[in-house]
UniProtKB/TrEMBL annotation:
Transferase keyword on record: no
Database matches in Pfam families: NAD_binding_10
Enzyme class: oxidoreductase
Protein name: NAD(P)H dehydrogenase (Quinone)
Species of origin: Rhodopseudomonas rhenobacensis
EC number: 1.6.5.2
């Protein structure tokens, strides 16, 4: 069996490839990347593949049995890009596509959900057997801001008391590998999230505990949070999007208590305390 991973040099993709290598010979894994030279350190065969250039995809997918389609990072272009890959996979005779979607994509109020809904629909109509991994929020989406919180004396956001069932990327990568390397998941959709949800106030308290500094959570209005992000160099459109996602979190968009992620990986998901400690060491 040959397994190909799109976006293999990305943050999630690299983790998936490393975990696949623990289960399969490197020759059975193909890294699909825009620039194969950047994948040299992965230790697996690499092929040029660009979501936005269908002409690159046919050769890239030749001989591939199972494909992990990691969602593109080009928000606004993703539905078209993903469909390019799905169509090429169909033509290449790929027998199973595993797609990284968004938690509760079918009902999520987040602006990110529309393109995932479209891709899920395209998979359904493709005729290729597929499995959907609806990934919840990565812990790193928030722990990546710890440095700024320590510098500014507070952790800021617009999530209110919303419960966030996050887990580190490594947990989601492990779940993807579990599905990629076993049979019986075709046609299934998994809602993947951390076992124990937390609020941004609880995150701030954990940062305070581990650093010995008083770092409170400061909840801001959506527009004020977007403005704060812009002041730190985040592009206007992305700042507005991040703030809107936090508002979605306040309404429960990032919460799930089904524990399907821990079931897939066969262990509890990584707790917040470990995610914070890891971020503080980096």
């Amino acid at each position: 069996m040959t397994i190909a991973v799109t976006g293999a040099t990305g943050q999630l993709g690299r983790l998936v490839v490393e975990k696949l290598k623990q289960k399969l010979p490197a020759s059975a894994i193909i890294a699909l990347v825009r620039s194969p030279e950047k994948a040299a350190d992965l230790g697996v065969p690499a092929r040029a593949a660009d979501y936005g250039k269908p002409s690159t995809l046919d050769a890239a997918l030749a001989g591939v049995d199972t494909l992990l389609l990691i969602s593109s990072n080009e928000i606004g272009k993703r539905a078209v890009q993903h469909n390019n890959v799905i169509e090429a996979a169909k033509m290449a005779g790929v027998t199973h596509i595993v797609y990284t979607s968004l938690l509760h994509a079918d009902t999520s109020p987040l602006s990110l959900a529309d393109e995932h809904r479209q891709t899920e629909a395209d998979l359904t109509s493709s005729g290729v057997p597929f499995t959907i991994l609806r990934n919840g929020w990565y812990s790193e989406n928030y722990t990546g801001s710890i440095g700024a919180a320590l510098a500014g004396g507070a952790f800021i956001g617009s999530a209110g008391d919303g419960k966030i069932a996050a887990a580190p990327r490594a947990d989601y990568a492990e779940a993807a590998v579990a599905v990629l390397t076993r049979d019986g998941d075709a046609g299934k959709t998994y809602e993947l999230a951390g076992d124990t949800a937390w609020t941004l106030s609880e995150l701030a308290a954990e940062i305070s505990r581990q650093t010995g500094k008083d770092i409170p959570y400061k909840n801001l209005a959506e527009a004020d949070y977007a403005a704060a992000l812009k002041s730190h160099g985040v592009p206007d459109g992305f700042a507005a999007a991040i703030a809107s996602w936090d508002v979605g979190a306040a309404k429960g968009a990032l919460f799930d208590d089904g524990q399907q992620l821990s079931t897939l990986i066969g262990r509890p998901t990584t707790p917040l305390s470990v995610a914070v400690a890891t971020a503080l060491k980096s």
